[in-house]
Amino acid sequence: xxxxxxxxxxxxxLPSTLRTGLSRGGVELxxxxxxxxAVIFTFSFPAIVLALLGSINDEPGPGSPMSQVxxxxxxxxxxxxxxxxxxxxxxxxxxEDGTLKRLRGTPVNAGAYFIGKTVLVAVASLAEVxxxxxxxxxxxxxxxxxxxxxxxxxxxxxxxxxVACTLLGIAASGLARTARSAAAVLNLPVLVLQFTSGVFVxxxxxxxxxxxxxxxxxxxxxxxxxxxxxxxDSMAAGEVAGSWEHPVTALVLGAxxxxxLVLCLTTFRWTDKRAG
Amino acid sequence: MNAIEVRDLHKHYGSHxxxxxxxxxxxxxEVFALLGPNGAGKTTTTEILEGxxxxxxxxxxxxxxxxxxxxxxxxxTIGIVLQTATDAAELTVRETIKHFRGYYPNPRAVExxxxxxxxxxxxxxxxxxxxxxxxxxxxxxxxxxGRPRLLFLDEPTTGFDPEARRQFWDLVRxxxxxxxxxxxxxxxxxxxxxxxxxxxxIAAGRIVxxxxxxxxxxxxxxxxxxxxxxxxxxxxVRTTDPIGTVVQLDGRGGISGLQVRQxxxxxxxxxxIGASA
Lengths: 276, 277
Hints:
The structure holds 2 protein chains of 2 kinds.
Chain A: H1 3-6, H2 17-34, H3 36-56, H4 66-96, H5 99-104, H6 110-140, H7 148-173, H8 179-196, H9 208-214, H10 218-230, H11 246-267
Chain B: E1 2-13, E2 16-27, E3 31-35, H1 42-50, E4 57-62, H2 72-75, E5 78-81, H3 93-101, H4 110-116, H5 132-144, E6 150-154, H6 162-177, E7 181-185, H7 189-195, E8 198-203, E9 206-211, E10 224-230, E11 233-239, H8 242-252, E12 256-261, H9 265-276
Parallel strand pairs in B: 3-7, 3-8, 5-6, 6-7
Antiparallel strand pairs in B: 1-2, 1-4, 8-9, 10-11, 10-12
Helix pairs in contact in B: 3-4
């Protein structure tokens, strides 16, 4: 081979950030769904918990049965799992196994890396929500709404929830010292917030102080929002304010998107500095 | 133009001076080996050249640019073979190489790289299932897929069996023959001797010797060892005039097991490291 063939000509343009990012999204998805651990513990876990809790609380009562309330609320758990937890542990892993270091040595920039993560989160979250709805419909006779207005609510709620959880997951990935501890570190707030935000238990049965604190965090509003989409309006009486509070929900989730973005921009790093 | 140009490089971590004033020039097209014990500053120096670490002081130019501030275009012209990555576990070998190919403006062909790196039999295996040596070949494949002008090889043959090491040396010679500049760090002195046009020995954050494998540390002028056995038993002398010694012995007769040894690169290296420690 000649030297001319071996040296890159400076006229060839680099692949765009978007193209590289979408290509990364493809391999991120492949790696996620091929990893049995991720599929069982991150992806299937919320559906398993829903099937169990729903079966335990399946007695008919006034209004919607508790199993349907759970099915609606636990869409929040699904998003926390595929956005917050999987992105947080995923980045901690990427930092530890050399993915980020390797990418740092190629023309891939942070933008392309995050486009890849966004593709992963979007596809995994949609699949997760579809799985949870299927469990709700097939096991607990949850009725899918026919009113387009409710699907519109579902749309913005889903988008804001995914964006907020993903950004917070990216920021939280830096808190864990190792990839192994990341799962534990990220699961703790997820479990605590779900109990205090009325996802696992009905919000009307929680102490008032707990509800007030939980109102500062996104999980409370995600659960309430998804209940507003899939439960009849008569069920709004059981909520804290006696109504669905859509404007407040949008405001709180929007605020968490901003907080998450600021935290990401200030804390993200390619490698673990502590690793020397 | 020099591919790498370093003047008075300094880097410390707290009070520890990892790099204490290094000057280094690597010419375009050259295979340059960086030798030194663990903790001598090799990795810190390489990581500064690769753009992973910021320096405290000194000037650094790699392919004409400052790695601390260079952008995507510059990264497309270098290739880095990492030492400890375990990423992409769930992808197959071919998928991984194909994916990385998409990062570069003027990459090599996937199948060429598979053959060059000896990965043909493993193309459809998941990266997770590979042995350590096979994993390193994938690392090398990802380092060269972008057709780099400058390739960083950080202890590339660790975990290779002797046959795989010889194959890897051939690959390095092929790349070098195509005009790729190569900066090699290694613990294997036979590897440095086989591959490097020039080399430098780093100890305690400084370069203690620099030259070709034949001349570094005064190797070409160092005394040779002449050993033989006669009626009185084995003898060994170190001399700068081995031919003269052999001629003298020739007059005596009754000599067997005659050997003349020039100091090996390892002898020179250990002297250099010992002297600076």
